[in-house]
Recover the amino acids of this structure.
């Protein structure tokens, strides 16, 4: 070990070059093209109601919301509060819940504290049973939200949108679906999800495998036995491969390790796994919280994880501790930059030291260590992942940054060694920065029939990531030019509030059509570029990940498809200031002609 005065295992220079070496191992020429889509068979919804049918619908409503996850549900709830109840929510799944409908893999939970993650806890009067809620509890909570706010009668489940076209003469969106519905609406809300389109690594031979294979978001309990809350009882004689070591794998590996005959974990980039410290909810504490506590705690958490260092760290967990200093912020002096680099190294060193403390085999421990900056990839928090590697039936197969070489009929190949398995589980994540229409599964057509894919061919054009020129009355909730945050439900709640407020203002003020002006979109783009300076510099030294589009070269198109990389609270500030301006700065509006409208 190098001696140094930093308290780190390696000197700053050694760490810097180690990070660089690890980054270089992982840079690839195919960037985002390395991923493939799930085949129709792998994408099939294992939880769908079999044989479901319904008659096609043809009706007109005020708003069609695409997506029944938190974003869509919260938008509908906000609209209803305002008395706008003629809403349709179109959802591919057979229930509400979005990510919590699809992700039912064993061990699935939310690693953001339930008291700040679950929306509307005070209004619903619900107490999460644990500090970090299980996916099952969150899915049940989604259904409770839907029942409480009477969303079920508005939902069209097991229905895919096949097209959405702006009818200029009528100022309405015409939406068609896989169930032959033809619906029309004044507003179209695209809340189709952020991490919803599962992806597969493009490993050669993937289709040759003759055993069972599935993606973690399509868990087949018919094969594994058990259920999200019952132990899997059919893996005792099975050899299982998990491909990937991201946030999903970290939760799923301990569950398989506990029951499978053998588990092989195929690692490309080691994940960062901090302390979880799960706890049952302290009932006395929870029941004595004062009115308004949740909003205060949500804001406090977001302040803490964006480096704003609030006076009190209310949540005080692994997230707030690790993210207390924003080490990617733009600074003006070399000294400040060096200080941030040191803080980042120290934070990640504590993650690496934890591995040595837990994992007994020093070789395995060394392979599990992440050498990347704390903002480069999503960090994870779990107390059972690392101990899994002490079990005799669990084997880490480190691919030294290259990934799995091949899949054969019998198993998984790395470095010329074939690992025969009965089951391959792809913990390979979701599309995040691919084209929006690709993730939505349809391509909205706006003014003059121009498709979103055409309009955004050279990159996105939006105001706040919400309104888009050429697409009147279309409201987006996505990461494209929108906000980002550790607590996604904070982002989604505020985005839902914003899109609902726009629709409400239009209805209250007889506005028939609202659309972003191109000049305002360019102003917003310059805001995105301005706040992105620190992050862009930081990411240059990062390992590839979905945070940086796999380190694909930034072309002019990618330079428009950005996320607001400043603090989520700053992004929310932009939305709030815009809403407070009675002149709707930066949008074109057409008011209904009251003289020809007898209702007004
Ligand atoms: P990720 O995209 O984070 O992970 C995919 C994994 O697959 C990575 O480890 C990746 O390696 C690996 N991989 C890709 N290609 C290959 C290959 N050819 N060979 C071997 N390994 C390969 O997906 P997750 O599903 O884990 O997480 C996605 C997101 O979902 C998270 O970032 C988080 O936002 C959310 N999530 C949230 C949770 C929560 O508790 N709130 C829990 C789970 C997920 P590499 O790193 O090298 O790319």
């Amino acid at each position: 070990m190098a001696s140094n005065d930093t308290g780190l295992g390696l000197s700053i220079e050694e760490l810097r070059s180690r990070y660089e070496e690890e980054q270089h191992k992982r840079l690839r020429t195919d960037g985002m093209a390395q991923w493939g889509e799930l085949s129709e068979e792998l994408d099939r919804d294992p939880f769908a109601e079999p044989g479901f049918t319904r008659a096609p619908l043809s009706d007109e409503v005020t708003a069609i919301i695409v997506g029944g996850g938190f974003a869509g549900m919260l938008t509908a709830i906000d609209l209803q509060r305002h008395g706008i109840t003629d809403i349709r929510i179109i959802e591919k799944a057979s229930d509400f819940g979005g990510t919590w409908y699809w992700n039912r893999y064993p061990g699935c939970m939310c690693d953001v504290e339930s008291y700040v993650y679950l929306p509307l806890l005070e209004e619903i009067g619900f107490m999460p049973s644990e500090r970090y809620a299980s996916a099952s509890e969150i899915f049940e909570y989604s259904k409770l939200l839907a029942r409480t706010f009477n969303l079920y009668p508005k939902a069209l489940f097991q229905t895919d949108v096949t097209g959405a076209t702006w009818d200029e003469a009528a100022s309405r969106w015409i939406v068609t679906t896989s169930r032959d519905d033809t619906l029309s609406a004044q507003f179209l809300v695209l809340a189709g999800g952020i991490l919803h389109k599962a992806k597969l690594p493009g490993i050669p031979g993937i289709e040759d495998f003759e055993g069972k294979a599935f993606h973690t978001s399509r868990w087949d309990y018919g094969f594994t036995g058990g259920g999200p809350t019952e132990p899997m009882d059919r893996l005792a004689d099975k050899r299982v491969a998990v491909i990937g070591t991201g946030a999903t794998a970290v939760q799923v590996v301990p569950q398989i390790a506990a029951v499978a005959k053998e588990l092989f974990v195929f690692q490309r980039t080691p994940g960062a796994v901090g302390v979880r410290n799960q706890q049952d909810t302290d009932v006395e504490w929870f029941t004595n919280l004062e009115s308004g506590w949740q909003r205060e705690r949500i804001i406090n958490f977001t302040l803490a994880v964006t480096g704003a260092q609030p006076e009190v760290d209310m949540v005080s967990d692994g997230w707030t501790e690790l993210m207390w200093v924003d080490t990617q912020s733009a600074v003006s002096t070399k000294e400040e930059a060096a200080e941030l680099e040191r803080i980042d190294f120290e934070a990640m060193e504590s993650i690496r030291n934890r591995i040595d403390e837990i994992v007994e085999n020093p070789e395995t421990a060394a392979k599990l260590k992440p050498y990347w900056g704390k903002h480069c990839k999503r960090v994870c928090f779990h107390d059972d992942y690392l101990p899994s590697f002490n079990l005799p039936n669990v084997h880490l197969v480190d691919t030294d940054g290259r990934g799995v070489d091949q899949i054969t009929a019998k198993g998984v190949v790395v470095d010329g060694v074939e690992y025969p398995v009965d089951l391959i589980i792809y913990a390979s994540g979701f599309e995040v920065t691919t084209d929006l229409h690709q993730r939505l599964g349809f391509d909205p057509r706006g003014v003059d029939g121009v498709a979103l894919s055409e309009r955004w061919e050279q990159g996105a054009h939006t105001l706040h990531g919400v309104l888009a020129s050429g697409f009147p009355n279309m409201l987006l909730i996505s990461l494209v030019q929108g906000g980002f945050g550790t607590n996604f439900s904070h982002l989604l709640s505020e985005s839902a509030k914003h899109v609902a407020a726009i629709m409400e203002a239009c209805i209250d003020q007889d506005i028939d059509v609202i659309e972003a002006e191109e000049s305002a979109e360019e102003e917003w783009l310059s805001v995105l570029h301005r706040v992105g300076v620190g992050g862009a510099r930081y990411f240059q030294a990062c390992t590839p990940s979905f945070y940086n589009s796999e380190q694909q070269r930034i072309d002019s198109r990618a330079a428009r498809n950005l996320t607001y990389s400043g603090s989520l609270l700053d992004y929310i500030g932009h939305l709030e200031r815009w809403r407070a301006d009675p002149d709707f700065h930066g949008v074109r509006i057409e008011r209904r002609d009251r003289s020809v409208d007898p209702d007004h």
